Structure formats: C-alpha cells, structure tokens
C-alpha cells in the first residue's frame, strides 16, 4: 500500500474505533501518532469529522485519517531531522479576537458602551461576528488584572470605603451598591454605582446638602426591557477622588431585582451591612499578610550563588540524588543536572532574560512583583529548580529495553516538598507554590514533543496560574541541561519556541489562557435548568476545552453541544 503513493501525497482511510476506554477518550483534532519505518516517518493525523454520543460505557467514533511522508536519514541509532518551524499556540477564534479587541477599546476608554465597542472591534477584524457582553467583560477583567496588578486591590478597598461613607449618609433611602465596586471587577476609570429608592428627589437633595455632599442632578432617557424610561442620576465627587453615580428609583421597585446587562442574570447588589462585612474581612486578611515572615535567611542563601553549597545540608533529599544515573537524553546524574539547571537560570537572570524577545520587559516586571507568601519570585524559581528532580532516586527503574526511567517522579517530588516546607518552616503560601512548581515541571517539557491539543495547554495555564512564566523558564533550563547522545539539536530550539509562544499567550491574554467562551454559567442555568453549582462548573469547564479544540464556535452551537453533554454520563466527559 505504501508503494502506491508518491512521496508527499496523502492516503485517505476510514477507521471505525468502536472500543475505547472512557477513561482515555480520543480527541480527533490534532492527535498525531508517529509510526517509524526504515528511513521514513509516517505521521498519522486524525481529524474528527463525526461523533456518535455513547449510549453506554463505550465510545464509538469515526475518524478520517491521512498519512503523510517525510524524508529523514538515519545516523547510528538516532534519527536526525531538520527542525520544523511550527507554532504551538492555537489559532484563536474570530469571536475571541473581537472580544479581546472590544475589551481593549473599553479599557482604554475609547468607548463607554459594550455595543459600540464590539461593533468597532468587529469592523477592525473584518467580520460581522459580535460576541456577547459577558465574553467581552471576561477579557476586560483579564486585561485589568494583568495591567494594574496589586494596585488594583488597594484601589478597590478605597472605593468600597468611599461607597460605604456615602451609603451611610443616605441610609434613609435604602441604598444598594452595584457594579464593579461590589463584584470586585474594577478597572482604570471605574466609578462607584449606587441605587437609591425614594419617590421625592427633593428629599434626597436636602439630605445630601445636610451631609455636605456636593452633587449634580441630570436626567437620562434610556430603553430597558423593551421600555423607554426616564431616569434621575445624581453625581457626586467623593473626597477620595472617585466619582459616585447614584440612580434614583421609585420606592415601589425596591423589592424588584434588576437584570444585569452583562450576564443576563440578576444584578449583584449589596446593602450597607453586607459591605461592612466585606470590608471587615479584607482588613483582617491584610493584617495577617503583614505579619507573615517571608523566610529571609533562606531567600538570602538562594539569592547568592556562592552560598548555594549550604543548601545541600538543608536538603538531604537533594544529596540523595548524587550518583543517580539518568537515561540517554542526559549527560549528567540527577545531582549534577540539578545544579546545572540552577546555573542556567542564574545566567539567564544575569543576562536580563535576553532570550525572551517579545515580552522581556513584561517578564522582568512580573518577576519583580512579590510572589506567593511574599517570596521573591526569582528565589522561588531557584528553590523549584533545586527540588524539581528530588523524586527520581525513589522512582528509578529499568525498562525492558535497558533505558532508565523515573515514572511519576514529579508527584513523588511534590510529596517530598511538603516535608521540606514543614522542616524548614517555610511560609505556607510559598510552600504550596513550590509544591505546584515541582508537580507541574514535566508538563511544559513534554508538551512540545507530544503536539498536544489546545485544551491540554489551557489546563496547564489554569493549573500553573501566575506561576506560568516561572514554570516556562524552569522547563527551558531543564531541557538545556540535558545534552545526552539521544538529545537532538533541534530540541533546544523547539523548547525556546514553545516558551516564547506561551509567554506571549500569558502576557497578551491569549486564546489558550483566557478563551472567551460564548456559553456562560447563566446560560446553563436559564436554558437547561442546571442549578447544581458543581455540575454547572464541570459542564462549563468541559465546554471551554471543547471550544478550544474547535468543536463549536458560536453561542447556538455551544448550547447545542451543552445539550449533548447533558445527555451523556458525566463520567465520560
């Protein structure tokens, strides 16, 4: 069969896979299996064209398969090939691109209304696709969080305190705090929105004058719920510098729950008592953070390479790695490999992370911010490098081919990290971050070679959180410290490409990190009556992964996909 097709031409086959383990379902999109023949690599690329939902424990799927051939040459026992220029990032959907552009327009205050922003964003993208307000809102929050950092939380606290002072002055009118100040989703330029309930505007004006609150009254006509209404707005410039905008409603509407224009569900609003409780809780948390000690002596040792020798006595788990041989991808034992990784990271730090071309400044700013538990992020990165392979001595085994392997060493290493954190009395949040780094450190090393689907990369972003840049740097140093006879030269270039593209995804709020899924939790509750919060969260996560893998695009397709999922046992998701 192979001889009938000329080199480079595809062979089309249809494969009916009728017995697949539910615990290991196949994703048709971008799943590649490499079959080795003498002098030839056969890439089997399976594209899912039709799926039959399983009625019982087995999954029945039909794939259309194409075989491609690629010239290679054998040198000794190692196959060499030219490095391929390929991107690891998924192509973002049109909806995501429009939602992200609209969010940028709103954040830069070029537009105030969502509808105007998304129409302009669609025009710039050359499409008529319009995402929902909620999709744009999610991207707006991602941009605000990444741009403003910790200053955003401090400003939120100040804005809530300002809102409380105004609400206490006007408590006779049963004020309710709404909008971003209550939900916590503020951004640069956000104001404080309050609803007041009174039938007499004059009473409100007299009360504000008595409380020495300068104000300006104006009337707005707008359409809500297919009805044109006149609204009374009262603006007040608070002494803290924030603008307070109050909307006056009749007393008869106090018991009604207004609809949110972003989510489509009930509007979140807070009374004076609820706001006081939230402020009291945040003050306690801030006090607890200030009392924590960020392990100053240990961090000073990690930040001074000349003192790294002292760490061996603190970490007997690391000393146990001495003399533990590795497979043919490595040229050093586990102990020396660990120190080589640390040296690579220190050289990278000394060079100002010059290998990262596009987002070098963003990376430097990220690493300059305080990390978990008040730790300096670069110190936590060195500590992660020291611990990343401590699980190898207890997991070492031999494959029947004679190759050494360390199955599950990252999980065992994470368990040993918990013991280290307890023994060194490390700050708890920093200890959890260290454990997360060790447990995830193999993922960005293996993913580039596996050609994983977009959903796998999204899960990595979600699991790593704000440690993603550090995890990527650790993976680069790990790969570049493994230069055994089986390691191919293009592997180093491949890892750097992966790291740079994932940095771009992280700092540019890309499709993999924060996809604008067209189906929301509110949709699942309203359209299908899914009231169980856990089931709704699980269903939304599955929809997110399917959306990333290209199973659906728009809201209607997403709701249809959700309906199919609800008819399937949740164990098969």
Structural summary, described in words:
The chain is of the alpha+beta class. It folds into five domains: 2-80, no CATH class; 94-148, no CATH class; 150-290, Beta Polymerase, domain 2, CATH 3.30.460; 295-507, Hypothetical protein af1432 (Orthogonal Bundle); 521-572, no CATH class. Helices cover 47% and strands 16% of the residues. The strands form four sheets. Strands 9-10-11-8-7-12 form a six-stranded mixed beta sheet. β3 (40-52) and β4 form a beta hairpin. α13 (377-387) packs across α16 (428-440) and α18 crosses α22 (533-548). It is elongated, with a radius of gyration of 28 Å. The model is unreliable at 1-86 and 287-292 (pLDDT under 50).
Key words describing this protein structure:
four-stranded antiparallel β-sheet, 573 residues, alpha+beta, 14 strands, Beta Polymerase, domain 2, elongated, disordered N terminus
What's this entry about, in short?
The protein is α+β, with helices and mostly antiparallel strands and about 575 residues long. The protein has helices at about 95-105, 115-125, 135-150, 150-170, 180-185, 200-210, 270-290, 295-300, 310-315, 315-320, 335-350, 360-370, 375-385, 390-395, 410-425, 430-440, 445-450, 455-465, 470-480, 490-505, 520-530, 535-550, 555-565; strands spanning about 10-15, 30-35, 40-50, 60-70, 75, 80, 175-180, 190-195, 215-225, 225-235, 245-250, 270, 395-400, 405.
């Amino acid at each position: 069969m192979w001889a009938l097709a000329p080199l480079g031409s595809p062979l089309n086959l249809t494969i009916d896979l009728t017995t697949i383990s539910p615990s290991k379902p196949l994703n048709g999109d971008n799943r590649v299996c490499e079959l080795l023949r003498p002098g030839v690599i056969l890439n089997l690329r399976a594209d899912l064209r039709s799926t039959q939902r399983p009625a019982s424990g087995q999954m029945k799927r039909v794939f259309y398969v194409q075989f491609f051939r690629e010239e290679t040459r054998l040198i000794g026992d190692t196959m060499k090939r030219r490095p391929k220029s390929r991107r690891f990032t998924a192509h973002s959907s049109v909806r995501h691109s429009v939602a992200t552009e609209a969010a940028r327009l709103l954040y830069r205050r070029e537009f105030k209304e969502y509808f105007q922003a998304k129409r302009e964003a669609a025009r710039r993208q050359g499409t008529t696709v319009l995402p929902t307000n909620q999709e744009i809102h999610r991207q707006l929050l991602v941009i605000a969080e990444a741009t403003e950092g910790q200053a955003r939380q401090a400003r939120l606290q100040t804005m809530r305190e300002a809102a409380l002072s105004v609400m206490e002055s006007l408590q006779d009118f049963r004020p309710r705090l709404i909008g971003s100040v209550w939900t916590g989703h503020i951004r640069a330029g956000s104001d404080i929105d309050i609803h007041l309930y009174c039938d007499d505007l004059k009473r409100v004006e007299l009360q504000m004058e008595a409380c020495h609150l300068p104000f300006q009254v104006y009337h707005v006509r707008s359409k809500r719920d297919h009805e044109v209404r006149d609204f009374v707005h009262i603006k007040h410039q608070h002494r803290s510098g924030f603008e307070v905008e109050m909307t006056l409603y009749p007393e008869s509407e106090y018991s009604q729950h207004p609809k949110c224009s972003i989510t489509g569900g009930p509007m979140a609003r807070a009374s004076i008592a609820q706001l006081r409780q939230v402020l009291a809780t945040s003050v306690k948390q801030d006090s607890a953070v200030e009392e924590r000690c960020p392990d100053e002596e240990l961090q000073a040792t990690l930040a001074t390479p000349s003192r790294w020798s002292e760490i061996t006595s603190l970490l007997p788990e690391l000393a146990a790695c001495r003399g533990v041989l590795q497979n043919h991808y490595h040229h050093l034992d586990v102990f020396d490999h660990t120190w080589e990784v640390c040296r690579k990271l220190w050289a990278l730090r000394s060079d100002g992370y010059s290998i990262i071309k596009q987002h070098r400044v963003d990376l430097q700013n990220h690493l300059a911010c305080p990390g978990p538990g008040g730790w300096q992020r670069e110190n936590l990165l060195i500590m992660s490098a020291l611990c990343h392979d401590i699980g190898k001595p207890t997991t070492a085994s031999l494959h029947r081919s004679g190759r050494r392997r360390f199955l599950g060493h990252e999980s065992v290493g994470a368990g040993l990290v918990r013991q280290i954190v307890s023994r060194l009395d490390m700050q708890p949040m920093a200890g959890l971050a260290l454990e997360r780094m060790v447990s995830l450190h193999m993922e960005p090393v293996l993913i580039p070679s596996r050609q994983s689907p977009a959903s796998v990369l999204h899960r990595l972003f979600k699991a790593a959180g704000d440690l993603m840049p550090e995890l990527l740097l650790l993976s680069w140093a790990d790969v570049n410290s493994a230069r055994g006879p089986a390691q191919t030269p293009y592997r180093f270039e491949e890892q750097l490409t992966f790291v740079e593209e994932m940095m771009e995804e992280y700092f540019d709020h890309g499709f993999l990190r924060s996809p604008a899924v067209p189906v929301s939790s509110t949709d699942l509750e309203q359209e299908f009556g899914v009231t169980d919060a856990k089931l709704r969260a699980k269903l939304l996560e599955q929809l997110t992964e399917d959306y990333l893998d290209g199973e659906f695009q728009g809201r209607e397709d997403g709701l249809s996909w959700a309906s199919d999922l609800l008819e399937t046992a949740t164990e098969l998701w």
